[in-house]
UniProtKB/TrEMBL annotation:
This is CD8B protein. GO terms for cellular component: cell surface; membrane. It comes from Pachyramphus minor. GO terms for biological process: adaptive immune response; regulation of immune response. Keywords: Adaptive immunity, Disulfide bond, Glycoprotein, Immunity, Immunoglobulin domain, Membrane, Signal, Transmembrane, Transmembrane helix. One of its GO terms (molecular function) is MHC class I protein binding.
Amino acid sequence: GFCTNLLLSQTPEHILAQTNNKTEMLCEPKMEHTGLYWYRWSQERQIFEFLIFSSTLGKTTYGANISQDKFRVHGASAHKSYSLHISHLHASDNGIYYCSVSQSSQLFLGTGTQLSVVDVLPLPSTTTQAPVSKKPVRCITKCKAASKKGPCSPLIWIPLATGVLLLLLSLISIAHRFHRLRRRLWLRIHRQ
C-alpha cells in the first residue's frame, strides 16, 4: 500500500500561483531510495496521476500525456533534496502534489503540497494598527447579557456543530475514495 510518511518532508505546504507563471516545490527524502516519484491528486477530476520519476542516476521517466517542457525535477546536494519545477501554469495543474519513494513493495508518500492556480493573485492585505491609548481602558462585563446572547448561545453553537459534523462526514468520504484510488494505482504499478 501507500504510506504517508514523515520520512519524506515537502515544502511549502500551500502554493498560490498565477496562470502562465511557474512554481517549484521541494522534497527531502530521509530514507534510502533509488529515485523519486511525483504524483498529483486532482480533487476536480478525482484521479491520482503519475507525473515523473527521477532516478538517482539521473534518468527521468514521464507519465502518460505529461509534458517534458512543463515538468522538470532537479536534485541537489548528493540527491538529499529534490525540487519539482512546473512551468506554464494552468487551472488544470490544481491539486495536491506528492513526492514518493518505493521501498519493500510499499510506496511512501510525502506530506503533500497543495497547488492553486488563479488568473489574478489577491492583493496583500494591509494591516492597520489601532492608536495607542495612554489611559488604561477598563473592561466591563455584563454577566446577565452574556448569559442570554453570549458566544455560547445555542443559536451559534448548534449550526456550528452541524457544519463541523457535515465537514467531517465529507472528509471521511473523500479519504475512503482516495484510499481506493491509491490502492488501484499501487496495483497498476506493480502489475507492470
